[in-house]
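Each lists sequence, tokenised fold; shown next:
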Amino acid sequence: MEKNDMIFQQLLFSFQMQGMISLGKIMNPSTQKIERNLLIAQSTIDTLEALSEKTKGNLTDDEKKLLNQIMYDLKMNYADEVSKKQEEKPEEKEKEKKQKPEKDKTEPKNKNKEE
């Protein structure tokens, strides 16, 4: 394997790692936390798609297969995280309702107590 072939593979794996970190699938090594940022994940996928388009016809079969597999994996995981986020929304609203005590509407807002 030539030097440039190895560098290209490293580049693809770097994008894959960034995508998985952004999707919250693996821990961010910088913060030591699981973090999800779907905008960054989508940007990573878009970058790989642009790279695929711009390198069309210039990749070996193995490079093309690797690039396509990484894009596929990131897209499937992205779809999974988006569906999780949509499922979380009703749960979050329910939690907020339970956490917020209901105000007693019979009491005035500004209550002056004289003792």
Observations:
- The mean pLDDT is 87.
- Residues 3-87 form one domain.
